[in-house]
Amino acid sequence: MEYGRRKPISLLELCIRTTMDNLRYVDNVDGVEMDLLQRILPHCKMEDLTRIENNTEMDLTPVTDKLWKLFYTRQFGEENANQVVKRMSMSGARYKWKDLFDAKTKKQKEYEEKMGQRLAKKYEAAKAGKKHFLAGCLQISGKNESCYSKEYYSKDISAHKDELKSCTANEDNDYS
């Protein structure tokens, strides 16, 4: 072999590289040998791997289980993944990492929804308290004026000092 000349790549290697570059278009890998899948599938994104597994009839667990463990570790942390491994070894149970990933993701979404609902309730309670404060805070000269209105600030603030003190004192008593 002359200096500077490379050996051409095999047709098989060319097909593997092309498949790796176009994984977003792969739906089904039925009939593909496991040793080829072990070279190709590690290049999948999570969405690609999910799609391929859902559309393939043969069991890909021998190849994809390691990949799902990696996705689990990236998503939920090394400590959490180690804890799962420890629990599985203690109980003697064996689960697919894809199932563990799906269960943990579902649990996390439920927790996020629950926290969102709590936050919405707190926001509504604070909003109701603010409306109560604005509605009952100041009654100046027979007019219902908010301490946030232009009319309020255009008047002399010292004239309303006592009213403000009594208003905030009443509000403090309402929340204690």
From TrEMBL:
Coiled-coil annotated spans: none
Cellular-component GO terms for this entry: elongin complex
Pfam families: Elongin_A (PF06881)
Example GO BP: transcription elongation by RNA polymerase II
Domain of life: Eukaryota
UniProt-recorded name of the protein: Elongin-A
Organism: Oryza meridionalis
